[in-house]
Amino acid sequence: MGRRAERLDKPLVWLRGEIKTPPFSRTARVEAGLLLRRLQQGETLSLPQARPMPAIGRRCHELRILDEGHNWRIVYRTDADAIVIGEVFDKKTRATPPDVIDRCRNGSVATTKLSVGEYSDEAIEEKASGG
Fold it and tell me: What is the predicted pLDDT for the residue at 58?
């Protein structure tokens, strides 16, 4: 019998935002969790679940979650050793709001550099606040 290779999931690093019920419906929260799990396991998602966000930075994308009257977006970056969550918001217009793009590009998901071993709450909070 062959040995089964153990595959570790990439951790989720939350710089901003959260997914909870409410405001997400239970169904949307579960869908978000399943999509994030797929990312953690190394899967690359594409439309309709996700799309690249080159305006924010390299390896930056948004998850797209349709909910009861809401169009949730979760902006994330894929690193070799983590999935970095930069923003969670309800998209109300066709275009991503400029303030969301600016926050992600300048203050969190596109610029925060993390490496293995830097996932303690204190280290993440310090990096996210620019310390």
Answer: 87
